[in-house]
Amino acid sequence: MTLKVIMADDGIAFDGRVKDEQPLGGAETAFAELAEALAARGHDVRAFTRCAAPLEWKGVHWNPLDGGVPDAADLYIANRSWRLIDRCRNAGQAVFWIHNPARYLVKWRYQSRLWRRRPKLVFLGPNHLSTYPRWGRGGERVVIPYGISAPFLDAPERTEAPPPRAVFLSNPMRSLDWLLDLWSDRIFPEIGNAELHVFGGAAVYGKVGEDRAGEMTVILDRARALADRGIVLRGPLGKTALARELTQARVLLYRGDEGETFCNAVAEPQAMGVPGVVEDIACMAERIRNNETGFVVSGAEAFAEAAIALLTDDMLWRTQHRNSLKFQRSWTWPQAAARFEALA
Fold first, then answer.
1. How many helices (H) does the chain have, and how many strands (E)?
2. Fewest Cβ atoms nearer than 10 Å: which of 46, 198, 217, 277?
3. Is 343 strand, coil or helix?
4. Is the pTM of this model over 0.90?
């Protein structure tokens, strides 16, 4: 059955073409990927964001949010914002898609609307679900993880272990300074030819990134100054270019952050066969299978030891590389779209 699907987001300006042509944040990328996956399943999908002009892209009709949202649909997906919960009043089923830790939903402007409308609440994983109190308002609570984007799904197995190149892919404000210290003082001295490539910057986050660019610049300038310790500052990349870079990476290094609820910055390298080292923070243990596709550790010394092992032990790397390819790319956006479709 063909569904009429209305999706709405009132964050930064983006559409499907932006997602394909330049770096974009995780929540915005997920919104566009879901819209395209639903359209590919034969549904009539109309997405309303702060995009500048109407656009049809990969079967999705993109429209400026300022022009209003239709009153009726079979499925209405409100993305993140309390301002969107009450839109599309005559939808057969309303869904509120949550991307950040859900404690902010206890504010009255959310609770009052969630109580009145009772939309189904979509969380990204068990840890994410645990951030919303049991007494919180809303309808049925559902867990649907992000899918893995297509560019990361077809990497071949590498028969030879690559040189010791590590990558960092997240927001620089999420513990990059911590990693720079650990890399410079503990990891790099053990492996003289190791490199840490840093892919990150304000461009990914639109206006929010512009507002915090100064804080990011301080950290990135410090990374740039550590070139003699193997730090290579690369900047953010779009998905296709990033996937190409990951074919050269040996290990992902990311401490994790309490603000993470899914973390594409770990999931995408894992799907490419890149083992990772993370701390046991928030959802990190949901993204890496400990001792199989990487290491989930506690503390800086354990992190450094695991990183050094993966950067130097070729047999260990090959085992975890193969495991990552085997286990970490089994959930895709078409599968996630089918789960959303079933909510209607």
1. 13, 14
2. 217
3. coil
4. yes
Q: Where are the beta strands (DSSP E) in the chain?
A: 4-9, 44-49, 55-57, 60-64, 75-79, 93-97, 120-123, 141-143, 165-168, 195-198, 231-233, 251-253, 276-279, 294-297
The domains of the chain are located at: 4-148+331-341, 150-327
pLDDT in tens, 198-253: 998 755 544 554 556 678 889 999 999 999 999 999 989 989 999 999 999 999 99
CA proximity to 287, closest of 80, 146, 141: 146
CATH top class, domain 4-148+331-341:
alpha beta
Cβ atoms 253, 284 nearer than 8 A: no
Type of residue found at 36: E
DSSP class of residue 290 equals B
* Furthest-apart CA atoms within the chain: distance in Å: 63
Are the C-beta atoms of 19 and 206 separated by less than 8 Å? Answer: no
Strands 60-64 and 55-57 come out as antiparallel
Provide the CATH topology of domain 150-327.
Answer: Rossmann fold (3.40.50)
The dihedrals phi and psi of 62, each to the nearest 5 degrees, come to -95, 135
**Angle between helix 300-312 and helix 314-327 axes, rounded to 10 deg:** 100
